[in-house]
User: Fold this.
Amino acid sequence: IVLRPCYLPPKGYSSFTRAPGHPRVPRRPLPRTPWTTRGPPPGAPLPRSWQDKRPVQEQIPGLEQVTYAGKQYFVPWLARPRLPRWERGWHDPRHSPGPRYEAMPLYKERVCYVCHQRTKMLEGVRQALWLTKTKLMEGLPPKVLSIIDEPANQLENEDERVQNAISHARVWITTELIPKRESYCPVLLEDLLHLCRTMASKYPSLSKRMLARDYKVAAAWERESSILQVRGMNGILLNAINPLLPVASKDEILATENHILETFHPISPTIDLQEVNVYEERHDTGFREGYPYPHPHTLYFVESANVRPVRFRPEQLRAKMLMFAFGNALAKAKVLYGDDPKVLEHPVVVQSIGTEGRIFQFMVFQLNTTDLASSDGVKNLVWIDSDQYMYDYIRYLPGIRKKVVKFPPGIYGYRPDTFKKFLALYLHGAVQDSTQTQIL
Assistant:
């Protein structure tokens, strides 16, 4: 039998501290006693470490705190004095604490729940559907699918040009070995939009559109007993002179009355929204009156965060797309039809596309009603085609096995149907306009 010395750490050492030259010793559990398992018995005095420690001034009446205020310099064994607040004698906005929330003119006792561009919804699309009183339809609407199936609505050498756009965004534009998301995601979206704009020679109405960046939208509505708002900057908005026509018929709109919205009790639908008491209930599309491109067409979202905890997951990105598509549609409906809640004679349609550089989310939202307080009656409609891969991955360096190139650098798993859907949403509205012009 070989006896080896056992090292026990002294008092104060944790499981992560050890003496030099000795192995790490794990912290041992407390002994099982009635006090450690069930707590102190009733009426027994608490240990000294468990007792409520009051300040010395409260324990000894009449004791004054000795500070270093009279010495005019810091003394470590004396208490820090509490000096009166220095007033500069004039108002400096850079160093002003500002008024309290209760003193602000826009302060209200009723709480408002705000959805902004960094809101991540816990339940994703299900939560957004309840907040916007919307019925979900899988896939894209038939009007958009008919544009995809038409061979005349495709680009010349489409697959080659799309792959060149992907290579330009991820390989050619940078000197880094592996570019970051914040650099290649916006470039990829710009290149794909440039390919879509080349169809303007075939459809002249495409030239009557405008891209808007850094605009701010604001829309407010009541949902049951809560006030909700969508406001702030969001994605890139494509505006058009003419609005999009409804994609659902009147019979389909009336059939939504029988749809029951899904709830997720006991989770509150407003669990992720920001609670504010200083707010203004207003509806603003982000553009002045008389803007030549007044109607929202498509909203583009680019999720380009490099840090994974900050990045939106696909489900959260779809919920964000739905909320801001609803916000843009509601703000436009309030401008056109007033603030009274009612079923719209001409529904407002807004499209949305989101991507993180490889996976695309497609959405078509139709606002049928502004009566959102109760869950009864006509619902809004949304079509979502989720998780559409444009390509599987990109190899930046060749894969060499035994001095033979087995996997050359390039794009792997390219899927052409994704860009066809991207192009179809861009052409939506222009194809119908050209058809009506030919009929006339």
Remarks:
- The radius of gyration is 31 Å.
- Residues 110-439 form one domain.
